[in-house]
Amino acid sequence: MSVRISSNQMLDAGIQSMDNSLADAMNWQSKITSGNQFGKVSENAYAVSRGVRLEFDEARLAMFKTNQKFVESSHANAQSQLDSIINEMNMLKQTFVQSQNGSLNTTNYSALKIQASQIRDAIAAQMTAQDATGTAIFQDKVNQVQIEPNLMVASGVTFSDAFGSGSAYSAPTESGLYQSMDDFVTYLGEKAAGSTSFTNDPTAVSAGLDTAFDQLTQAQQRSGGISVQVDSAKSAISSIGTEVAATSSALLDTDMAAATAAYTRSQTILNAAQAMFARLQQSNLFSKL
User: Fold this and answer.
1) In 154, 206, 240, 249, which residue has its Cα 20 to 30 A from 143's Cα atom?
2) Which of 133, 139, 134, 172 is nearest to 154 (CA)?
3) What pLDDT is attached to residue 23?
4) What's the burial of 9, exposed, middle or buried (CB within 10 Å: 0-12/13-18/19+)?
5) What percentage of the chain reaches a pLDDT higher than 90?
6) Do 66 and 199 belong together in one domain?
7) In this structure, are 209 and 277 located in the same domain?
8) Are residues 171 and 279 in the same domain?
9) Mean pLDDT computed over 68-81
10) Bridge-partner residues for 152, per DSSP?
11) 117 and 194, same domain (yes or no)
12) Hey, CA dihedral for 214, 215, 218, 220, is it positive or negative?
């Protein structure tokens, strides 16, 4: 049984072969040029939609990193300020111990009062300190910030957490910390005046200073704990980021070695098809059409 193939069929087959090879070559060339495995959803709906999801994940990771830097900076400023205030509070407590020396006279108490007043005023200034951007280090309210999936932390240390409940940035002299220091200064002033009765007795003054000191150290410890969480979150986000980048690359990025080989193969087939078509055109069969 013989099969007859018309000249038109051969011509159409040759043209179709060249078109297919040309399209294939252009497709691989586009992938090599762009570096993208898929250019539109119709090529692979799952891969492209998954790639969009991965890009969203990458954006979220960038947000987490930004939040981490912000929280880290905010708490570093707060801890530095708290450390300075705690050191000055230690000096104030040492001054209180000195004030309980029964051999001191009114002149000595006057000198201690001046020293305590200077420490009180220095701490009061630090309570309302601002960072390099002009933002208060201890604000009345702070936000909860997400530093990794399912983990929210305070963006800073509130004024009341550091200096006593009910206190506010706008009225630092009404805070528990300031009141305890001021009570001590008042006590020293009364001792310097030779008074034997006091607005606040030594026991109450000491208790107030201890309470304020404990409040400061607790605030510093909580802030330090958040800093540790930020460090852990950095490691976690770094690992997640590596996984997301690897998944995205494997799914959407062109394998240059494979693409180059495929492009070369398609180009070779195209050249062969063009050469064969040229011979067909020159044959007597086609010249007689």
Assistant:
1) 240
2) 139
3) 65
4) exposed
5) 50
6) yes
7) no
8) no
9) 94
10) 146
11) yes
12) negative
The domain that holds 129 is classified in CATH as 1.20.1330.10
The larger pLDDT score, comparing residue 281 to residue 208, is at 208
- Confidence at 235, pLDDT banded by 50, 70, 90: confident
Statement: residue 271 has pLDDT above 90: no
Collapsing DSSP states into helix, strand and coil, what is residue 135? coil
- What region does 139 belong to: left with phi over 0, alpha with psi -120 to 50, or beta? beta
The dihedrals phi and psi of 157, each to the nearest 5 degrees, come to -105, 125
Contact 244, 58 (CB under 8 A): yes
- Asked whether residue 17 falls in the same domain as residue 85, the answer is no
Residue 123 structure tokens:
């701490």
Q: What's the confidence (pLDDT) of residue 250?
A: 52
- Tell me: do 160 and 270 sit in the same domain: no
In this structure, the answer to whether residues 64 and 149 fall within a common structural domain is yes
**Residues spanned by the domain of 180:** 47-251
For tokens 């049984």, the residue is 1
Question: Among 42, 27, 54, which Cα is nearest to 252's?
Answer: 54
| 8 A C-beta contact, residue 145 and residue 71 | yes
**Hey, what amino acid is at 172?**
P
Residue 126 CA: distances (Å) to CA of 69, 82, 122, 131: 23, 9, 6, 11
Query: Is the residue at 150 inside a domain?
Result: yes
Domain count, the chain: 2
Query: Under 8 Å CB-to-CB from 209, ≥6 apart: which residues?
Result: 89, 92, 93, 96, 180, 181, 184
Residue 142 CB: number of other CB atoms within 10 A? 18
In terms of domains, do 66 and 157 share one?
A: yes
Residue 3 lies in a domain: no
The answer to whether the CB of 199 falls within 8 A of the CB of 186 is yes
